[in-house]
Amino acid sequence: MQLFVKTLEGTKLFNVQSSALVSDVKAAVQAKEGIPVEDQLLSFNGYLLEDTASLAEKRIFEDSCLHLSLRLLGGAKKRKKKNYTTPKKNKHKKKKVKLAVLKFYKVDDTGKITRLRRECNDCGAGVFMAAHQSRHYCGRLIN
């Protein structure tokens, strides 16, 4: 029976008996490709094939396609979890200020209203500037 084996270089055609074992197919691949049997991994329908299994047992029939991959050595060790020494940074929580408008205006005993903050000349009325120690700053304007 004919089998297709998909290798790294391309798909190759192999003639084997229908009662053959997977190890017989691997030996044929070694003869044709030169890849040692112990380095070969054959899979069919996503499942790895053991050397002792027969082709009929794994339902491999005429014109089936087997995939050949190579065994790889090693693999990295599992890394140890990093132990952080500094505490996590707390996110800023916005504080809701009740009657926040009272920061911007002052009402006298006579009922006269005075502004406590300067208004921005560029942004217009209703936009107040932040009062720092050395300057006034409008946060709405982007320089």
TrEMBL record:
Gene Ontology MF: a single term: structural constituent of ribosome
Pfam families xref list: Ribosomal_S27, ubiquitin
GO cellular component term, pick one: ribosome
SUPFAM superfamilies tied to this protein: Ubiquitin-like, Zn-binding ribosomal proteins
Keywords for the protein's UniProt record, in alphabetical order: Isopeptide bond, Ribonucleoprotein, Ribosomal protein, Zinc
Residue span(s) of domain Ubiquitin-like: 1-75
InterPro entries named among the record's database cross-references: Ribosomal_eS31 (IPR002906), Ribosomal_eS31_euk-type_sf (IPR038582), Ribosomal_zn-bd (IPR011332), Ubiquitin-like_dom (IPR000626), Ubiquitin-like_domsf (IPR029071), Ubiquitin_dom (IPR019956), Ubiquitin_ubiquitin-like (IPR050158)
Biological-process GO terms, alphabetical: translation
Family statement drawn from the similarity comment of this UniProt entry: In the C-terminal section; belongs to the eukaryotic ribosomal protein eS31 family.
Annotated PANTHER family: UBIQUITIN
Protein's UniProt name: Ubiquitin-40S ribosomal protein S27a-like
Biological source species: Tropilaelaps mercedesae
